[in-house]
Write a structure and sequence with these properties.
DUF317 domain-containing protein; 4-stranded antiparallel sheet; 14 strands; about 270 residues; 5 helices; DUF317_SPDY; disordered N terminus; alpha+beta
Length: about 270
């Protein structure tokens, strides 16, 4: 007798409680699969060891994305080998960096570079982040003062980007990029950092901070699975389109899905 294929959750599936958290920079780390599954669907190799930290490698083997929560200070390391156009570079992001912000950088690794010159400050100005100059340094801070992006230049001309977020209790994270980090990747990071829309976290995974705002939402498992699957489908479609372009076949790109639902203010 053939086994029936599972058709998903039935019409009576119970909803689960999640929270929309704002500002996103203080929402906590989140689910690392938001990044790893997108990279895997984009053709990246999973080089992780069983029971060990996450390690993903690009198809051309020039870039690696690692997440290790078992060491101090722990967090994300994105490392690029030197190639004909770029010197060796790396970015380090703390373990509490929201995965949606990390994905700004890692998603950009899977896409062709734009012909336009990158501008790290542009996404911040669009969201009305005040900018100030102190000597050779330039810094932009979010309107609520919880997150920042800073450019520092040494007397020898070498430069570094530094970012982070922190609440009044001292909880938060920092991120830094070596001087040779491609600027379009830093801009992709700053764009996600500056986005004003909230991110979603399950019950029990919302940070305890007086500086965040939360809204309770009811989410069915099938809805959550559909939103996650749509992101994976988008990655696969983009990878197929790139491969098709190389081989001369026409390609298509899926449009990302934005979930819409009722939200009740929690506080």
């Amino acid at each position: 007798m053939k086994k029936k294929q599972w058709q998903g959750w039935g019409p009576g599936e119970p909803a689960e409680q999640y929270y929309l958290v704002q500002p996103r920079a203080l929402a906590g780390g989140g689910d690392v699969r938001h990044i790893s599954e997108f990279l895997r669907a984009s053709g990246w190799r999973d080089k992780s060891k069983t029971g060990g930290p996450l390690l993903m490698e690009s198809p051309d083997r020039f870039v690696r994305v690692a997440y290790d929560p078992y060491v101090l200070p722990g967090g994300w390391t994105i490392h690029g080998r030197a190639d004909g156009a770029n010197a060796e570079w790396s970015a380090h992001l703390g373990w509490q960096t929201p995965v949606e912000i990390v994905a700004g950088l890692t998603d950009a690794l899977t896409r062709p570079r734009s012909a336009h010159a990158p501008n790290v400050w542009a996404p911040l100005r669009e969201q009305n982040w005040p900018t100030r100059f102190v000597g050779r340094d330039c810094m932009a801070a979010s309107p609520d003062g919880t997150a920042w992006m800073q450019y520092h230049q040494d007397v020898d001309g070498s430069a570094m980007w530094w970012s982070g977020a922190q609440d009044k209790q001292g909880n938060g994270w920092t991120a830094n990029f070596t001087p040779s980090t491609p600027m379009h990747l830093v801009q992709a990071f700053s764009a996600e950092l500056a986005r004003p829309d909230p991110v979603m976290r399950p019950r029990g995974r919302v940070p305890h901070s007086a500086q965040i705002r939360t809204w309770s939402v009811s989410v069915k498992p099938s809805q959550l699975n559909a939103w996650q699957q749509n992101r994976i489908t988008t990655a696969r479609a983009d990878a197929w389109a790139r491969n098709s372009a190389r081989s001369g076949r026409p390609g298509t790109t899926a449009r990302p899905y934005t979930p819409v639902g009722d939200a009740r203010p929690r506080r």
